[in-house]
Amino acid sequence: MVAVVNGGEESMSMSEQVWQGFGFGEIGYLLIQDDVPVVAKAREMFDLIDQAYAEDVAIAAVSSLVAHQLLEIGEDGLPRPLGAAAVLAYAIAEATRWTRIGFFSEGDEAIDGAVLLHAPEVTAILQPRQGGAWLMVVKAPEVSDAEAIWALISGFRDAHEKASVFVEVSDLAAGATLFADHRGDDSWNIALGECALWPEQRRDDVDGPVLETLLRTAVEDDLSVG
Predict the structure, then answer these.
(1) Residue ranges of the domains in the chain?
(2) How do residues 198-217 score in pLDDT, each as one tens digit?
């Protein structure tokens, strides 16, 4: 999948963006550096296999990160993430909202997904790849988080005739879920999970702009207030 981070619905390939690949052990290593609620929430969003947090995997992850100049060991013996790893470590530690997206296609059985870490200074978009790897793209600052999510959805819809998407947005206090089936052209059948934003479960047929507005509400509004 291409990740759109440069505005509107226009797609750009990963090679045209600032990106970085991480192994599942490297992600796991960065996710065990603290045990505060925000980091625990990030672990929940990634839902890595238990092996990702094993001691021997963490040792290998440190070696890999150092070899790729994404980590250094300071004179005090403490590890310091560098470059893209520092950006990811910041997003893990400072995120105030999290989005998990699942993409499905009935026609060709395609499956994809994404995790977004929404932090004050950066939104990191990570997508799973083969072999347990993850590809991180940093959202361009001129693009809103809702625009980035809609662009990911639009890209999958354009590539797969029978596209479906599940979106879960949450903070530490509340959350909202949305499921959408693409019905052709610009038509979607949606199902909204009960939450403060939309107090009653609801199914409806909507067009793309309405779906995009619902996504914007989930990403930008107070999840605890209807």
Answers:
(1) 16-93, 96-220
(2) 777 789 999 999 999 999 99
Closest CA to 178 of 226, 145, 212: 212
Cα(224)–Cα(132) distance, rounded to whole angstroms? 34
**Look-up: residue for tokens 């959408």?**
180
Single-letter amino acid, residue 87: V
- Which residue shows structure tokens 């599940």? 166
Token pair for residue 66? 């150092």
Rounded CA-CA distance 206/156 in Å is 18
> 16-93: which CATH number, 3.40.1130, 1.20.58, 1.10.10, 1.10.3470?
1.10.10
- What is the model's pTM? 0.88
CB 127 within 8 A of CB 151: no
Tokens 């963006």 found at: 17
- Round to whole Å and give the CA distance between 88 and 39: 12
**Cα-Cα-Cα-Cα dihedral sign, residues 60, 71, 119, 102:** negative
**Which two tokens mark 150?**
């809609």
C-alpha span between 77 and 126 (Å, rounded)? 29
